[in-house]
């Protein structure tokens, strides 16, 4: 898994830089997606220039001003430890799929981003469920965003979304059916 | 008799051919005009410049080489206005004017002028990473009246991705932005994205309490959700559905949307607006942030308009202090970014 994740570093690193321009915030944008019996989570993390050194200090743990692959993976795992997924109160166990980091210099200048992808198995059974996602990573400087992609699986239908004011807590109500069709639902 | 008939037919044919009213070729279409100006632009370049400006139509890397960031941070492909001589620059702007509506062309000029203002910063300083000459033009594929090709133009706070396929034109994905979002030039106050701000605010004000409760999200949206690098994604829509709006509000919503769709030349923009209007019932309007605005200023709130083939985001930025003075916007059709649907046909 670690080798696979490292192999994906280069691919993710050449993706377009995020659009965030916040200087005093650490923008942490989450996109959730349904993929069959799994939920995928894509995290795009963008530290602003005024908080970049603080974020970098937590990544570059040996202070050599470089971000090594082990440091990338270690940070990604720590990030995942700060977020949680649960369904009906039962926690889901997210697995790291890939990581991608801009260079330390780009991050320091507020021009870089960190991409982390994870996945978690959904429990089987049940037609109605509420997924709760929480992000408590670096809350003093965070600006959280969380959204769900429209499910490609036509048997999954999003019913409602609820968020705390700072988007650190997100609840997604959804329905699953064997042969249902996916539509847009009112909140 | 037969000989006479043949002569008569020939005479009639010649007369018809010579008749100006009947002989007139079909009037040139917008695409004809764009292609003509594109070829003129390419002819104005030397060989090295032409090689630099042209890419394969399916060059995925070049397609996505755009950003809100200045070009020194995220290098663009193609050649910049700075690298062109006066005649080449004129040909480039003529091409853009052909591809865009007059209001769209004016909007992008004001965005570029804003960057020039940022470069000079009004305090005697100069920031070389900004300026109206640091905008790049590239062409993907070969300009053609029939075959698909793309025109890209962009730099700081601007990314136009225009796909042309026959008489159809697609402007998505396109990013516009402004910093400063209000400036004075030649004694005139300029707000490049004034209509995007003012029309959306007017729509918000037209909502009754129940509608507003649905439209105004109870949480902060700090940035674009589907900005650069997020092609082809569709998020779960939120806010107030247009089916719950009255006719005046629906017209006002379409008017807001036209600020993006209407950047493109009028024929393509009209087709796009018709497509959006056809699914207006399934289009949503969501607002996050302050529900008031200082007179003459831009809103400081984020808003999003989302339909089956549409995503618009308006996101004020905190960089620079006043979010009203720094705005990013995104315009997408997740089903047709880079003209994917047209090319598939």
Describe this structure in a few short sentences.
The complex is a heterodimer of chains A (187) and B (345). With 187 residues, chain A is α+β, with helices and mostly antiparallel strands.
Please give a structural write-up.
The complex is a heterodimer of chains A (about 190) and B (about 350). Chain A has about 190 residues and is an alpha+beta fold. Chain A has helices at about 1-15, 50-60, 70-80, 105-110; strands at about 25-35, 40-45, 85, 90, 95-100, 115-120, 130-135, 140-150, 155-165, 170-175. In chain A, strands 5-6-2-1-8 form a 5-stranded mixed β-sheet. A 5-stranded antiparallel β-sheet of chain A has the order 4-3-7-10-9. In chain B, helix 10 packs antiparallel against helix 11 (about 265-280). Chain B folds into 2 domains: about 30-185, no CATH class; about 190-345, no CATH class. In chain B, strands 1, 2, 3, 4, 5, 6, 7, 10, 11, 12, 13 and 14 form a 12-stranded mixed β-sheet that branches. Chain B has a two-stranded antiparallel ribbon with strand order 8-9. The model of chain B is unreliable at about 10-20 (pLDDT under 50). In chain B, a hairpin with a 2-residue loop joins strand 12 (about 300-305) and strand 13 (about 310-315). The relative contact order of chain B is 0.13. The chains are: A alpha+beta (about 190), B alpha+beta (about 350).
Which key terms come to mind for this protein?
heterodimer, A: 187 residues, alpha+beta, 5-stranded mixed β-sheet, 5-stranded antiparallel β-sheet, 22% helix, disordered N terminus, disordered C terminus, B: 345 residues, 2 domains, 12-stranded mixed β-sheet, two-stranded antiparallel sheet, 12 helices, globular
The residue fraction in helices of chain A comes out at: 10-25%
How far the N terminus sits from the C terminus of chain A, by CA atoms, comes to 39 Å
Biggest interface, which chains? A-B, 35 and 36 residues
Helix content of chain B: 25-40%
Residue fraction in strands of chain A = 35-45%
Number of helices of chain B: 12
Output mean pLDDT of chain A: 84
Regions with little confidence, pLDDT below 50 for 5+ residues of chain B: 12-22
Terminal Cα span of chain B: 52 Å
List the secondary-structure elements of chain A in sequence, H or E: HEEHHEEEHEEEEE
Largest sheet of chain A: 5 strands, mixed
Question: What is the count of helical runs of chain A?
Answer: 4
């Amino acid at each position: 898994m670690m080798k696979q994740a490292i192999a994906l570093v280069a691919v993710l690193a050449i993706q377009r830089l995020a659009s965030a321009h916040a200087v005093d915030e650490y923008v942490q944008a989450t996109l959730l997606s349904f993929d069959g019996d799994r939920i995928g989570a894509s995290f795009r993390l963008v530290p602003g220039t005024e908080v970049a050194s603080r974020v970098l200090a937590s990544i570059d743990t040996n202070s050599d001003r470089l971000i090594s692959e082990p440091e990338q993976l270690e940070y990604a795992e720590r990030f995942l430890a700060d977020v949680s997924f649960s369904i009906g109160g039962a926690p889901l166990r997210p697995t790291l799929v890939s990581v991608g980091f801009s260079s330390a210099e780009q991050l320091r200048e507020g021009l870089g981003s960190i991409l982390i992808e994870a996945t978690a198995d959904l429990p089987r059974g049940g037609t109605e469920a509420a997924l709760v996602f929480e992000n408590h990573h670096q809350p003093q400087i965070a600006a959280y965003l969380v959204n769900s992609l429209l499910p490609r699986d036509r048997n999954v239908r999003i019913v409602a979304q609820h968020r705390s004011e700072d988007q650190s807590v997100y609840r997604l109500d959804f329905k699953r059916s064997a042969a249902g069709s996916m539509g847009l639902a009112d909140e | 008799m037969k000989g006479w008939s043949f002569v008569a037919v020939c005479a009639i044919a010649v007369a018809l051919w010579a008749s100006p009213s009947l002989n007139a070729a079909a009037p040139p279409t917008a695409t004809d005009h764009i292609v003509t100006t594109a070829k003129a632009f390419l002819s104005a370049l030397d060989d090295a410049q032409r090689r630099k400006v042209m890419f394969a139509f399916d060059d995925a890397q070049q397609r996505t080489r755009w950003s809100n960031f200045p070009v020194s941070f995220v290098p663009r492909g193609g050649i910049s206005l700075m690298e062109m001589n006066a005649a080449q620059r004129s040909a480039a702007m003529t091409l853009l004017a052909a591809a865009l509506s007059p209001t769209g062309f004016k909007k992008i000029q004001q965005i570029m002028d804003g960057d020039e203002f940022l470069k000079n910063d009004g305090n005697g300083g100069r920031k070389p990473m900004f300026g109206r000459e640091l905008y790049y033009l590239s062409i993907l594929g070969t300009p053609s009246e029939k075959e698909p090709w793309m025109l890209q133009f962009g730099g700081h706070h601007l990314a136009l991705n225009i796909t042309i396929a026959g008489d159809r034109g697609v402007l998505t994905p396109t990013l516009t932005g402004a910093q400063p979002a209000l400036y004075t030039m030649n004694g005139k106050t300029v707000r490049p994205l004034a209509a995007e701000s003012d029309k959306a605010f007017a729509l918000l004000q037209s909502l009754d309490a129940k509608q507003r409760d649905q439209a105004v999200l109870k949480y902060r949206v700090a940035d674009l959700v589907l900005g650069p690098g997020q092609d082809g994604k569709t998020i779960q829509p939120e806010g107030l559905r247009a089916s719950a709006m009255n006719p005046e509000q629906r017209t006002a919503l379409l008017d807001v949307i036209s600020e993006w769709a209407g950047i493109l030349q009028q024929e393509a923009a009209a087709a796009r607006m018709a497509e959006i209007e056809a699914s207006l019932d399934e289009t949503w309007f969501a607002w996050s942030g302050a529900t008031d605005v200082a007179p003459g200023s831009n809103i400081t709130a984020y808003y999003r308009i989302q339909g089956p083939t549409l995503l618009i985001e308006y996101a004020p930025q905190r960089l620079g202090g006043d979010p009203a003075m720094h705005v990013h916007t995104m315009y997408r059709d997740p089903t047709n970014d880079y003209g994917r649907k047209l090319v598939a046909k």
